[in-house]
Design a protein that fits this description.
By secondary structure, the protein is α/β, with parallel strands linked by helices. The protein has two domains: about 180 residues, NAD(P)-binding Rossmann-like Domain (Rossmann fold), CATH 3.40.50.720; about 90 residues, N-(1-d-carboxylethyl)-l-norvaline Dehydrogenase, domain 2. It is about 45% helix and about 15% strand. The protein contains eleven helices and eight strands. An eight-stranded mixed beta sheet has the order 3-2-1-4-5-6-7-8, sandwiched between helices. α1 crosses α2 and α7 crosses α9. The longest helix has 20 residues. The radius of gyration is 19 Å and the shape is globular. The relative contact order is 0.10. Bound molecules: 3-hydroxybutanoyl-coenzyme A. Belongs to the 3-hydroxyacyl-CoA dehydrogenase family. Pathway: Lipid metabolism; butanoate metabolism. One of its GO terms (molecular function) is oxidoreductase activity, acting on the CH-OH group of donors, NAD or NADP as acceptor. This is 3-hydroxybutyryl-CoA dehydrogenase.
Amino acid sequence: MTIKKAMVIGSGQMGSGIAQVLAQSDIEVILNDIRQEFVEKGFAKIKKQVERLVEKEKITASDKDTILGNISLSTDYQDAKDVDIVIEAATENKKIKLEIFRQLDEITKPEAILASNTSSLSITSIAAVTQRPEQVVGMHFFNPVPVMKLVEIVSGLRTSDETRKVIADLAETMKKVSIDVKDSPAFVVNRILMSMIGEAMFTVYEGIATVEEVDEAMRLGANMPMGPLQLADFVGLDVCLAVFEVIYQGFGDSKYRICPLLRQYVEAGWLGKKTGRGFYNYE
Ligand code: 3HC
């Protein structure tokens, strides 16, 4: 099966990035969200990124028109009737994701693949709410999607080998490098990355060093492109907390304890760059 038409659910930073790369790969894509203003905002972001590619002479103005022409906007799951794949990139909330999969299982054609960009949730449990668990798979991208090369392909207990292969081909078409991962809390990258980000938070919480010092230390001493706390702000502290919860509950190991500072920031609505305040102040 070759993917020709896709629906991306969620037009936030991940969803719009995924839609952009699909459109750049000549795949027709429907960008879906719950409100028209959300999809329009997502599309505006894609347009800006694609226009920058023209400015940088990476693509022509005619390529830009083709890419943007590959994208349509939707607020109705019924538009997914004839897609080959749905890539869900909605809020990292299990209840919401399960409801989306339940509904899409009823709407999409029987051979369609239902993929989730979940950062940490069990693909096996998402698959279990559908009548096609063999065609449910994790396709986990990294932020910013147009730049980061990796895709984790997460096979749930019942995901078929054929589905995994279609996703591997799609990742290649999208010029990504994929790795196969077993279904386990937070998979590979986020399990390791979030553990490190968690230690950075505790280092600040315990007064060992300041936010700026921790980030500078990791940039200059560990060659990270951005420090762990800046990265946490960039990913979103709510997303980080959701991933931490899954890792902590999934393994039940105190080494994955959650820094109280993170909980407090999320409670305060300091969710990182997107809200103007996180470990840094962006206002
Ligand atoms: N979208 C598209 N392109 C972007 C971008 C964005 N949001 N941000 C930067 N870029 C592009 C720039 O246009 C530039 O392209 P060019 O080389 O063709 O000119 C290139 O990336 C480099 O950008 P800059 O020179 O402006 O800045 P940096 O060199 O600092 O790179 C960065 C920016 C790529 C974001 C870099 O800081 C980085 O790699 N940071 C770490 C990102 C990371 O670790 N992501 C994973 C997060 S975890 C995750 O996503 C999992 C999830 O489940 C939580």
